[in-house]
Design brief:
single chain, 346 residues, alpha/beta, 8-stranded parallel beta barrel, 3-stranded antiparallel β-sheet, 12 helices, 15 strands
């Protein structure tokens, strides 16, 4: 057995690179840069990135599917918010259209939608969204038994040992986040922005909805507010990020204008890639549907090169300095972390 076989298993396919597409130009950039799959959403609350100016209408998604499939790239449609009990029709209609359009899989979090998909479209491949918050093999196997899910995206709260235990105890393909912005990592359970806006990211598809965001120059600096709540104040010339409550700077106790919940940073698992491949991770996900086509292109190129290098070189793999330099420049806050993969606590 070669080093390569030892790394990915003699009969195991190479892991897939799953890249974000917030627009048709971003989709084309990801496909051209070497993505195996792109994931995208519709221009409504059925997906968890329901930002103004992002996502796809029907003509755009049909063009995107044709472009990707012509180049051997799969298209995954995220329908990963939770339908409102009083009006589930948009989510059902989106599933019906996904089957008609010929997407390669839909990414779901709500069991009710999974049941609808199983009943109406039994041949449609189902992936369990990170929004489903399935953190152990028992939960994942439940979704497999009940709804025949083929892949699960793990929440970003598990250590390497916990990822290993999940993979050892399920036949469902496991996808993990490889690179991109981090939040407070309670996927599917975060209600922070709901307190300020009355709209939940899990049902309306977006935290910090743009209609509630205000920017204002003041003598103390530029302020960002969410429905009147002061989130941050920036010094002259300081780069301002999109205002979310989890990454705001607040005055708490004796501390002023500091990151009370979390500091902006990005997950970057390049150095863990051989270990994750050896564990049997089936796909690596890049976060960032709200990012530009240029960002998607650069990140995809780095990770395409890294995965190919890892599969080809086996245990001789090591992250190239140029990869880290490129990703550091693109990382939120220009800094990265291994996140929960290497946390010491359980």
């Amino acid at each position: 057995m070669s080093a390569n076989d030892a790394l990915i298993g003699a009969h195991r396919p190479a892991p897939e690179l799953v890249c974000p597409a917030g627009s048709l130009p971003a989709l084309r950039a990801a496909v051209d840069a070497g993505a195996n799959c792109v994931y995208l959403g519709l221009r409504d609350a059925t997906n968890a990135r329901n930002f103004a100016g992002l996502n796809f209408d029907e003509p755009a998604i049909l063009k995107g599917i044709a472009y990707a499939h012509a180049r051997g790239c799969k298209v995954l449609l995220a329908l990963n918010t939770y339908p409102r009990a009083s009006a589930p029709e948009p989510w059902h209609a989106a599933l019906d259209r996904a089957a008609l359009w010929g997407v390669d899989a839909v990414i779901l979090a709500d069991p009710g939608l999974m049941r609808y998909a199983c009943n109406r479209h039994p041949d449609l491949r189902l992936h369990l969204s990170v929004q489903g918050s399935a953190t152990n093999h028992a939960a994942i196997n439940f979704y497999q038994k009940q709804f025949n899910i083929q892949r699960a995206v793990l929440p970003r709260v598990l250590s390497m040992e916990q990822v290993k235990q999940v993979i050892e105890r399920t036949s469902v393909e496991i996808e993990v986040f490889a690179f991109g912005s981090l939040c407070v990592m309670v996927e599917g359970r975060c209600a922070l922005s709901s307190y300020a806006t009355g709209e939940s990211p899990n049902t309306h598809g977006v935290c910090s909805p743009a209609k509630f965001v205000r920017w204002r120059d003041t003598p103390s600096g530029m302020e960002s507010r969410l429905n009147g709540v002061l989130i941050d104040r920036y010094d002259p010339g300081e780069k301002a990020g999109y205002p979310t409550l989890c990454k705001g700077r607040f005055n708490v106790g004796d501390e002023s204008n500091y990151y009370a919940l979390e500091e902006p940073t990005s997950l970057n698992t390049l150095e863990l890639l051989p270990q994750l491949v050896k564990l049997g991770v089936r796909a690596f996900k890049i976060e960032g549907r709200q990012r530009s086509p240029a960002y998607v292109e650069q990140v995809t190129q780095v990770w395409r090169d890294a995965i190919d290098h890892c599969v080809d070189q086996g245990h001789r793999y090591s992250p190239k300095a140029i990869w880290m330099t490129v990703l550091d420049q693109l990382a939120e806050g220009q800094q990265h972390t291994l996140g929960a993969y290497h946390r010491p606590w359980k």
